[in-house]
């Protein structure tokens, strides 16, 4: 007898969940536990660093190993008399908000692993040692850490497929559709939260480089492009190094500071995008030159 399509997908969900729980076990019970033990002995890195690298992986592991996987297993064992998984996935969805923290922390975690591997050879050796074990399948810690980041989109895809393959009269239709909607919201929420957080972090970093000028700091701004530029001086036929920051609402014309205490640049001129004009120049002496004019003044600039 051919298995119904929706059952095949439910089984695939179960199989990938088993593999996923093994991966979480490796991250939490092997990497995190052993790195933490060595950190406590004062042999590798500060305990705080290990905690920062692994974020809330323990909660994620416990949730999947003790709750979601067993529930899913029970559902698949009873499939013949009760073919449904939608209700279990509805219980899963709210807990997926835990991933927000882990995913947001991911880039920082990878950076910390790199920095401390350089600073502390024993830390690097311990990681290398664990990576050599068969359970790691020749993959790096960073590779394993990426798995939770990719798990929610995976649920979304499998569940979409499951809903598509369900017979119209299936007892699981309502629950499965509701579950899919919930998962979709969580996925969207975590992506939006990450994007917004990154935008604010980048913006803040730029503001610090500019010396936190009051009239410039605005959380709703968006940095579009930044980079060095040459200012053309027609008076003495020379150029001097300047720096531009283009935001959605303003262009900042800056001078790199020689003595970098605090800020990296000094803002010399702010041109509002509203009413700003840009015109290309065909200057043989200064190729790639253009004029930027604002309400107050006009600059002749040369790009690389």
Distance between the termini: 68 Å
Q: How many helical stretches? A: 8
Structural class label: alpha+beta
Mind describing the biggest β-sheet? Answer: 7 strands, antiparallel
Mass-distribution shape = elongated
Q: What fraction strand?
A: 15-25%
CATH-derived topology of the largest domain: Dbl Homology Domain, Chain A
Number of domains: 2
How many runs of DSSP E, i.e. beta strands?
Answer: 7
Estimated helix fraction: 55-70%
CATH architecture assignment name of the largest domain: Up-down Bundle
Low confidence ranges: none
Just give the CATH class of the largest domain.
Mainly Alpha
CATH superfamily of the largest domain: Dbl homology (DH) domain
Q: Note the run of SSEs as H and E.
A: HHHHHHHHEEEEEEE
Average pLDDT taken over every residue: 88
What strand line-up does the widest sheet have?
4-3-2-1-7-6-5
Radius of gyration: 27 Å
Quickly list its features.
304 residues, alpha+beta, Dbl Homology Domain, Chain A, PH-domain like, 2 domains, seven-stranded antiparallel sheet, 8 helices, 7 strands, 16% strand
What does this structure look like?
The mean pLDDT is 88. It is built from 8 helices and 7 strands. It is of the alpha+beta class. Helices cover 56% and strands 16% of the residues. Helix 1 runs antiparallel to helix 2, helix 1 packs antiparallel against helix 6 and helix 5 (98-119) packs across helix 8 (173-209).
């Amino acid at each position: 007898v051919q298995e119904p399509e929706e059952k095949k997908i439910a089984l695939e969900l179960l199989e990938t969940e088993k593999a996923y729980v093994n991966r979480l076990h490796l991250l939490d019970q092997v990497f995190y536990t052993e790195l933490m033990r060595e950190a406590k002995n004062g042999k590798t890195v500060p305990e705080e660093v290990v905690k920062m690298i692994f974020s809330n992986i323990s909660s994620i592991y416990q949730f999947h190993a003790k709750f979601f996987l067993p529930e899913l297993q029970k559902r698949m064992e009873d499939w013949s008399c009760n073919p449904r998984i939608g209700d279990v996935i509805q219980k899963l969805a709210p807990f997926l908000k835990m991933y927000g923290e882990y995913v947001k922390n991911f880039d920082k975690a990878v950076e910390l692993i790199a920095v401390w591997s350089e600073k502390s050879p024993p830390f690097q050796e311990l990681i290398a040692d664990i990576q050599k074990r068969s359970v790691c399948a020749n993959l790096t810690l960073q590779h394993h850490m990426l798995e939770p980041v990719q798990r929610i989109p995976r649920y979304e895809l499998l569940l979409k497929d499951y809903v598509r393959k369900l017979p119209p009269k299936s007892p699981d239709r309502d629950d499965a559709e509701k579950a899919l909607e919930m998962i979709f919201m969580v996925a969207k929420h975590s992506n939006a939260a990450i994007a917004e957080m990154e935008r604010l972090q980048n913006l803040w970093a730029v503001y610090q480089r500019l010396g936190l000028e009051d009239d410039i700091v605005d959380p709703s701004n968006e940095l579009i492009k930044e980079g060095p530029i040459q200012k053309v001086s027609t008076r003495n036929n020379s150029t001097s190094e300047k720096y531009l920051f283009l935001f959605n609402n303003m262009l900042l014309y800056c001078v790199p500071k020689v003595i970098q205490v605090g800020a990296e640049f000094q803002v010399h001129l702010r041109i509002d995008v509203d009413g700003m004009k840009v015109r290309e120049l065909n200057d043989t002496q200064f190729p790639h030159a253009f004029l930027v004019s604002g309400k107050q003044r006009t600059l002749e600039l040369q790009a690389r």
